[in-house]
Design brief:
alpha+beta; 3-stranded mixed sheet; 15 helices; 19% strand; elongated
Length: 522
C-alpha cells in the first residue's frame, strides 16, 4: 500500500500484505460469521443433531454442545473467531445458551447483509440493533415467572438444560435431582458457590450410576498397598513439601574412607526420614495429602504408624481437599499444630476397574461436593460431563439471579413481537434495523420447530398466534414437536441465560458489521 503525494509515493504496508475494503470486506466477514452459525444451528433444542469432529490426530469428539463444537473446529477467519468468542463468553458467564447466542449472532449478520444491500449505513444498523436489544432485555424481565425459585423449579431448569444432550441411559430428571442437590448443598445466604461443586468423570459403568459425593473425589491412590484404605473421623494434613532427604544448595562432595563412615551417613539419613514420619504421627495425623513426592522409606514408616498417605496430588485437588476439610496447606511437617489439620468423616479408597479413586467425605455439612459421573464409553462420558456441567451452571445462575422464564422459543417470539410493536418509536432507518432484529429472533423458534420435524413456517405462524392470547413455545412431546405452554411441560430457562445471549450476540454482530477494512499480512 502506498500514499501518493507531490513527491514519490510513501509505502505503508509491505508488498505481501493483503487488503480488503468496503463492501467486499463486509461481505467476506458476514459470510464467515454466518458459516460458523450454520455449523451449530442444527444442534439447537432437545431434538438437535450431534456433530462428529475429527482432528488431525484422529481424535473424535461427538457432541451437540455449541461452544465445544466451535472450539474444536479449526477456524482461521478472524470474523468467524468473533462468533467463537460469543460462545465462549456465553459459556463463561452463564454456562448454557451457547448455541442460541451463536445462531442469533449469525442471523443478525444475515439481516445486516440485506440492510447493507439496501444502502443502510453500518452505523444505522448498529443503532437499530442496540435499540432492539434494549427492548429485548425489558421484555425478558417482564416474562419472568412469579413462582418462587424452589427445588422443583430448579430441577426443571436443570432438566431443560440437559434434555437433548448426551446423557446415555440416564433420565434427565434423575440427573437433575442430583444437580439441584449438589448446588443446594453448597449454597448459603450469599448464593450458590458453583466452584464448590466438582465433577469427576469415571468410565466403566452406565450413566445411570452417576452419584453425588458429599466431599472430594480424587484420582489418586495410597503411596503403599499396606496402608489403610478406609479411615473414619480422620485428621487430615495437607502438605506442599517433599518428604525426602534434604539436598544442599551448593555443589559439595563428601569423601567416605571407611565402612563406619558410610554406616553413619546412612543412619543419619534414615534418622531424618524416620523423623518426618514421627512428626506426622505425633501431630495426630490420620491422612497425609502431599502435593510433592514421598520417599519410599518415609512411606514405609508412615504405613507402620497406620497413616494413609498420598503423594504427587495435583494442585487443584490439593486446594479442593484443603477447602473441603478445613486444613491449611503447610510447607513442612515440623511444628504442625491442631489448627493446621483438617477433618473428614471418612477417607476411603475404592477400586473402579483398574483405577483407584479416593473419597474424602465430610457428611451433611460438606462445603465441597462432587458429582461422580459414570459412562460406559469415553464419548458418552465426555458428553455427559458437558451436559451436567451446563446444568450445574444454569441452576447456580437461576438460584443467584432469582429469575426464570419460559423456554422452547417462547421468549424469543415474545421479544420479537415487542420489538415490532415498539419499532415505530425508533427514528429514521434505524427502525428498519430493529425490525430486522426481530426477524433474526424468529429464526430461533423456527429452527427448534425444524429440528423436531415440524414445518418451520407453519409452526412459526401458529406460535405467533398462540402468543397473542397466551404463552406458547415449540415443545417436544415424545418424538414430535407441538405448540404448547412450555411452563406446563417444565421447559424453563434462567432469565440470565437469555439476557447474556441477547447481549453477546448483538455485540459480536455489530462489531463485525462496523468493519470496512481488513488488512492482513502474509
Amino acid at each position: 500500500m502506498s500514499v501518493q503525494g507531490t513527491r514519490s509515493p510513501v509505502f505503508i504496508l509491505g508488498d505481501d500484505a493483503q487488503r480488503t475494503r468496503g463492501r467486499d470486506a463486509q461481505t467476506s466477514n458476514i459470510a464467515a460469521g454466518k458459516a460458523v452459525a450454520d455449523a451449530v444451528r442444527t444442534t439447537l433444542g432437545p431434538r438437535g443433531m450431534d456433530k462428529m469432529l475429527v482432528d488431525s490426530t484422529g481424535t473424535v469428539v461427538i457432541t451437540n454442545d455449541g461452544v465445544t463444537i466451535l472450539e474444536e473446529m479449526d477456524i482461521e477467519h478472524p470474523a468467524a473467531q468473533m462468533l467463537v468468542e460469543v460462545a465462549r463468553t456465553q459459556e463463561d458467564e452463564v454456562g448454557d445458551g451457547t448455541t442460541t447466542a451463536s445462531v442469533l449472532a449469525g442471523q443478525l449478520l444475515a439481516k445486516a447483509e440485506d440492510l447493507l444491500a439496501d444502502d443502510v449505513h453500518p452505523t444505522t444498523i448498529v443503532e437499530g440493533y442496540a435499540a432492539a436489544r434494549d427492548i429485548g432485555h425489558a421484555a425478558i424481565d417482564d416474562l419472568r415467572l412469579d413462582d418462587d425459585v424452589d427445588d422443583d423449579l430448579l430441577r426443571r431448569v436443570a432438566a431443560t438444560s440437559m434434555t437433548g444432550k448426551g446423557t446415555g441411559d440416564a433420565n434427565a430428571d434423575a440427573l437433575a435431582d442430583l444437580v439441584v442437590e449438589a448446588v443446594q448443598q453448597v449454597a448459603d445466604d450469599e448464593g450458590a458457590n458453583r466452584d464448590a461443586v466438582r465433577v469427576h468423570a469415571q468410565s466403566g459403568a452406565s450413566s445411570g450410576a452417576t452419584e453425588l459425593v458429599r466431599g472430594i473425589v480424587a484420582d489418586t491412590d495410597p503411596v503403599r498397598d499396606d496402608m489403610p484404605r478406609d479411615v473414619t473421623d480422620a485428621s487430615v494434613l495437607v502438605l506442599d513439601a517433599k518428604l525426602d532427604t534434604r539436598e544442599t544448595s551448593a555443589d559439595v562432595e563428601y569423601t567416605i574412607t571407611s565402612v563406619d563412615q558410610l554406616s553413619a551417613a546412612l543412619d543419619a539419613e534414615e534418622s531424618e526420614l524416620r523423623r518426618y514420619a514421627e512428626a506426622v504421627r505425633d501431630a495426630g495425623v490420620d491422612v497425609l495429602v502431599s502435593q510433592k513426592s514421598i520417599d519410599d522409606r518415609v512411606a514405609a514408616f508412615l504405613a507402620e504408624a497406620g497413616v494413609l498417605a498420598f503423594e504427587s496430588v495435583t494442585q487443584s485437588d490439593v486446594n479442593a481437599i484443603a477447602s473441603a476439610t478445613g486444613a491449611t496447606v503447610v510447607g513442612s511437617v515440623d511444628d504442625v499444630d491442631d489448627a493446621d489439620l483438617g477433618s473428614a468423616e471418612s477417607v476411603r479408597v475404592e477400586r473402579y476397574g483398574g483405577d483407584d479413586l479416593t473419597f474424602i467425605e465430610g457428611g451433611a455439612d460438606a462445603s465441597t461436593v462432587t458429582l461422580l459421573v459414570r459412562g460406559s464409553t469415553a464419548h458418552v462420558l465426555d458428553e455427559l460431563e458437558r451436559a451436567i456441567g451446563d446444568a450445574l451452571d444454569v441452576v447456580a445462575v437461576a438460584l443467584d439471579d432469582g429469575g426464570v422464564v419460559p423456554g422452547a422459543g417462547c421468549v424469543e417470539i415474545a421479544i420479537a413481537d415487542r420489538i415490532r410493536d415498539e419499532a415505530a418509536r425508533i427514528d429514521g432507518r434505524a427502525q428498519l434495523a430493529a425490525e430486522a432484529y426481530a426477524d433474526a429472533l424468529d429464526a430461533l423458534p423456527r429452527t427448534l420447530a425444524e429440528n423436531t420435524g415440524m414445518d418451520p413456517i407453519d409452526a412459526l405462524v401458529d406460535l405467533r398466534a398462540a402468543n397473542e392470547t397466551g404463552r406458547a413455545g415449540v415443545v417436544t412431546v415424545g418424538e414430535r414437536g407441538e405448540i404448547a405452554d412450555p411452563v406446563d411441560h417444565g421447559v424453563i430457562d434462567p432469565a440470565a441465560v437469555k439476557h447474556e445471549a441477547l447481549a453477546s450476540a448483538t455485540e459480536a454482530a455489530t462489531m463485525v458489521v462496523r468493519i470496512d477494512d481488513v488488512i492482513a499480512a502474509e
